[in-house]
Amino acid sequence: MGTENNWKNWLSSPLGRKLLAEEKDWFDKNLEDIFGYHAVQICPYRFDSLSNNRIIYKYRFSFGLCEGLIDEQDNVFIVAPETLPLPSDSVDLFVLAHIFETLQEPHSLLREVERVLRPEGKLIISSFNPYGLWSINRYFNDVNLPLNGANWLSIARFKDWCKLLDLEIIGGEFLAFYPAINSPKWQKRLAWLQNGVRRWLPTAGAVYCLSIIKRREGMKLLKSDIWVSKAKFGKKTVPSVSTFFTEKK
Fold first, then answer.
1. pTM of the predicted model, to two decimals?
2. What is the secondary structure of 38-83 as a DSSP string?
3. Is 129 helix (H, G, I), strand (E, B) or coil?
4. Among 49, 62, 57, which residue's Cα sits nearest to residue 209?
5. Which pairing describes strands 207-214 and 167-175: parallel, antiparallel, or unpaired?
6. Residues 6+ apart with CB under 8 A from 64
7. Dihedral of CA 180/184/190/196: which sign?
């Protein structure tokens, strides 16, 4: 419950609003052309990443009850990360926005998401980059950050987890190429840094977003000689008619 309140307070700050707008723009662009029947979002704060998506049935899950996250008009289901209440191969799109940073065992959630995704289903995630610009703030008691930086998940580690499952990363992008400063005045003064950092340090973005697809190999037919009929006797040559009369002469 404290995690959701921390997010709520941080997203009301100038730095939080700037990141939220940047992520919302990325989600709208990358989720627009994903089709299917069922879409699920899990997010520790109030955020609608599926607003620009065309899937009809959309659900929001939460791992904790928070007044700032849920109201009477929200269809939010409280679930446990270890066992999602969904059948296997039933979801076409799954969105995980900054949820791995809040868990002690994020791999268990990723395994559950892989289970409920349909083959060729899409998983979209956003997470803080432990090697990005904002990681500097971890040495200053996580000032201007919503979460403890110790739980941030690196892309290399996430790729290893995907290799163990039927998941393949097909795209992604780094966001937030600016320092974690909560002053609009200094944000404007340092705006010129963003293009330079994006160009010369392309992996230094404070947040990374990934597009992932579930790949499942189908049944592969092997060539077999079991059903091939073999002749019981060897081949025997038969002389042609023309050859027979030629030998007679």
1. 0.81
2. EEEEE-SSS--TTTT---SEEEEEESS--TTT--TT--EEE-BTTB
3. coil
4. 49
5. antiparallel
6. 1, 3, 4, 44, 78
7. positive
Q: Which two tokens stand for residue 98?
A: 């900054």
**Which structural domains are found in the chain, ordered by start?**
2-220 (3.40.50.150)
pLDDT of residue 1: 45
Which residues are CB-contacts of 2 (< 8 A; sequence separation ≥ 6)? none
**How far is the C-alpha of 47 from the C-alpha of 34, rounded, in Å?**
19
pLDDT in tens, the chain (249 residues): 456 668 888 888 999 999 999 999 999 999 999 999 999 999 988 899 999 999 999 999 988 765 455 555 467 888 988 899 999 999 999 999 999 998 989 999 999 999 999 999 999 999 999 999 998 887 777 677 887 777 899 999 999 999 999 899 999 999 999 988 888 888 888 888 888 888 899 999 999 999 999 998 655 556 655 555 555 555 555 555 555 455 555
Question: What is the rounded CA–CA span in Å between residue 61 and residue 43?
Answer: 7
The pair of structure tokens assigned to 207 is 């947040």
